[in-house]
Amino acid sequence: MKQISAKYEELKSALKKLGQVAVAYSGGVDSTFLLYAAKEVLGERVIAVTASSSLMTKEEILQTKEYCKKLGVRQLVVEINPLAVEGFSQNPKNRCYLCKHAIFQRMLKEVKKAGDYRLVEGSNMDDDADYRPGAVAIKELGIGSPLHDAGLLKEEIRKLSKEHKIPTWNKPSMACLASRFAYGEEITTQKLQMVGSAESFLRELGFTQLRVRMHGTIARIELISDEFTKFMWEDTRMRVYKKLKELGFSYVALDLIGYRMGSMNE
Question: Which of 50, 116, 169, 252 is at a distance of 20 to 30 A from 231, taking alpha carbons?
């Protein structure tokens, strides 16, 4: 099996060969690591491109701006309305394809204006294990996936991030807010705000890796099992219940299996 250090060297070599790179940067563990590696290899020949939309919280956008400033990387922030993409709000099973295709097409257009950059994104080997129609759009548009090409796994990316003192090394896995809805359930701005606000509130209470999945007006909360006990404290339960009722949920439930990636694909 290829050593993690060898994978990292392979990644840097691939980035160097590209010459100039634009990193699709969301602020998550993978894209932050990719941006760091690109900056390390290419210096001023790297830029970051961030899609700002209702699928991300304002807090996440702010964090991307802060890290780009810290790293000394020029950032392009592209405003996108995914609800205006034909078919997206109806939430079909290829929702991710429709969204990714629209976002990356827009990014490619903006990157072309900036110069001769190759657009790359942060998919890794673990992403192959889940249903990801967005990966088809990435391939169709010719977007590079250097982390995946280097054979890097999520835990290896976290380990390398920690070694290089990248602040997101232990950041909980994130995903766009559209992943909180069952296929076929209409996605609206109000619903996105509901789940986004609910998750922000849970993080304020100290919960880490979590999701608030929406089923009609029911909130299904996924937490890591280590945090079940804390959630069941009466004061915590009632605060969560009252807050989510205020946000518009009629019922609030805790998923007994707990957090897992892509549970809406089950």
Answer: 169
How far from each other are the two terminal CA atoms of the chain, in whole angstroms? 31
**Number of Cβ within a 10 Å radius of residue 9:** 12
Whether the CA torsion 125, 61, 86, 214 is positive or negative: it is: positive
d(CA 230, CA 236): 7
| Tokens 């390398």 sit on residue | 160
Please give the structure tokens belonging to residue 134: 């967005």
Q: Helical H runs in 119-208? A: 134-140, 146-149, 154-163, 189-204
For 47-76, the pLDDT digits (tens) are 999 999 999 888 899 999 999 999 999 999
Taking the C-alpha atoms of residue 85 and residue 116, their distance in angstroms, rounded to an integer, is 27
H/E stretch holding 114 reads helix 95-114
Q: How far is CA 19 from the centre of its chain?
A: 26
On whether the CB atoms of residues 195 and 65 are closer than 8 A, the answer is: no
- CA–CA separation, 256 and 197 (whole Å): 22
Q: Can you point out the beta strands (E) in 63-217?
A: 74-79, 118-120, 210-215
SS3 80: coil
pTM for this entry = 0.89
**What backbone phi and psi angles, to 5 degrees, belong to 110?**
-70, -40
